[in-house]
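Saturday, quiet lab. Running sequence design on the structure tokens for the scaffold JK sent over.
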């Protein structure tokens, strides 16, 4: 007796265009590291340090600001190729720190310290159509720094 084994299996082929679409659809979070410095005249400059992109989605991330900060706070904005605003995020003034401590009488005190320089990190949900990320002062149009997403 001769037995014949027949199997039915579909051939699957993955095309490169399908895998590219899947990669583009994966949500990305970007961590941007900057340093801000204030010179003797009070002029502030921001320099880009580094970035890191990871897969993921931020929870409860609002696309636009629902409250205004102080004049010295920063706004981080994402723009598309036509300079349309995709999202905005408020960054509290990185040069202003509040430190809590216990004094000699064992009472809590808060002291406000103004720094000359500081490093800060911005965490953003990176949208697929984002081409530029800008940081500017609250209520100002001209950015202190403009970062191309293609260079991250």
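Result came back. Writing it out in full:
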């Amino acid at each position: 007796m001769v037995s014949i084994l027949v199997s039915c299996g579909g051939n699957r082929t993955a095309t490169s265009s399908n895998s590219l679409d899947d990669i583009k659809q994966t949500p990305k979070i970007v961590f941007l590291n900057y340093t801000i410095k204030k010179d003797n005249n009070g002029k502030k400059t921001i320099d880009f340090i580094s970035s890191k992109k990871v897969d993921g989605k931020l929870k409860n991330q609002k696309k636009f600001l629902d409250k205004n900060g102080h004049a010295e706070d920063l706004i981080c904005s994402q723009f598309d190729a036509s300079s349309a605003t995709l999202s905005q995020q408020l960054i509290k003034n990185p040069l202003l720190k509040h430190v809590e401590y216990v004094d000699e009488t064992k009472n809590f005190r808060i002291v406000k310290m103004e720094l000359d320089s500081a490093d800060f990190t911005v965490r953003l949900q990176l949208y697929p159509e984002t081409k530029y990320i800008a940081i500017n002062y609250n209520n100002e149009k001209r950015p202190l720094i403009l970062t191309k997403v293609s260079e991250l």
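Notes for JK: The chain has one domain: 28-151. Confidence is low (pLDDT under 50) at residues 9-17. Ask whether to fix the surface positions before the next round.
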